[in-house]
Amino acid sequence: MLPLGVDVLLLAAAVAVLLYQGLAILFAYQMPLLHPLPPSSTIPTRRKVSVVIAARNEELDLPSTLQAILAQDYPNLEVVVVDGGSTDRTREIAKTFAPRVRLLEEPPLPEGWVGKNWACSVGARATDGEWVLFLDADVGTHPAAVRTVVDWAEREDASLASIGAKVEMVGFWERTVLPFFVQMVLTYFRSPRVNRRDSRAALANGQFLLVRRDDYVQLGGHEAVRGLVLEDVALARRFRAAGRTLRLAWAPELARTRMYRTRAEMREGLLKNIHGTDYSTARQLGFMVGLVGLFLLPLGLLPLGVATQDPYLAGMGAFLYLALFGKHVGFTRSLGAPWIYGLLFPVAVGFYLAVVATSIRRGVRHRPIVWKGRSYRWQG
């Protein structure tokens, strides 16, 4: 048996872990779910929507993305693809959809800009819709996606509306890591609280991000966040700080995407997001401590209780096992992956820890971020 004081501290830590896990479940329950609006027999006059797709070496995904966006039942739509110096067939593919799709060649990337932000800015300036939809080149959409999100944004008087797409997971690493990634986003950004007017929470999903042009221009557009990798979050924070209304919903029926196709691509993508151009060693160390303390150390309570023949610790440890593995199995199933991958969440945590460790190593050496063949200097 351990001393009483140690028992109390360990049990208190276990309760804190349970509360955190419960918070993730609560946030998932509170997230609004947006369904496609049913077809309408009449097509009323609608505000023009400009769809801006930033594309760099997207020959695998761009054809289906353009086919889907051109199949929208929204009557007043323009589509622009901004090519960012692709070395594959991206330009040729975009040209095959002319004249319904307009291809823009991205001017040389200015100093201090992230490539996607520059492409989005170029596309927004070249269009004139009252709404601007920034759509990633690997996002497929339901025919009613634009109509549904625009109607929702207008009903809610939102200046920025964004939806979470269904994440398609094919391989082992996608099914193991991405459900954990979704949980991290949900809890770190307090996602459902974005929809509360009295909340400071701010988040948008750059895969499908709709903004009112007037507000977007007034708040500086992508130029205001030009050097930031997480430009969607930065834009949402600017809109929130300016008192604009934000809306965020989970909409797996409206949009879908396969974020990463290989383990290496997923590692570099998560590293880009975690590291950012505003890197902080203290923040990364805190993230690492949180991952270990909230997801790995609690798994040691049961063997510790058994080894010390402490029934209280053993009982709480067993309960933690059920809670942690049960929660991750539930999240994994809800995202469409086989439940068995939820049991591998410690592997996902280990993957994240390796990415954070790489971020710290690069940060202390002031090494640049590399994504899609471009390097971005650290601004910290």
- The termini sit apart by 48 Å
Strand order in the sheet with the most strands: 3-2-1-4-8-6-9
- Give me the count of strands: 12
Provide the low-confidence segments as ranges: none
CATH fold field value of the largest domain: Spore Coat Polysaccharide Biosynthesis Protein SpsA, Chain A
Query: What overall geometry do the principal axes of the alpha carbons give?
Result: globular
Q: How much helicity do the residues have?
A: 40-55%
Class from helix and strand fractions: alpha/beta
* SSE series: HEHEHEHEEHEEHEHHEEHHHHHEE
CATH superfamily of the largest domain: Spore Coat Polysaccharide Biosynthesis Protein SpsA, Chain A
Share in β-strands: 5-15%
Largest sheet report: 7 strands, mixed
CATH architecture of the largest domain: Alpha-Beta Complex
Question: Would you give an account of this structure?
Answer:
It is a single chain. 47% of the residues lie in helices and 14% in strands. With 380 residues, it is an alpha/beta fold. Strand 1 (49-55), helix 2 (62-70) and strand 2 form a beta-alpha-beta unit. Helix 6 (172-188) crosses helix 13.
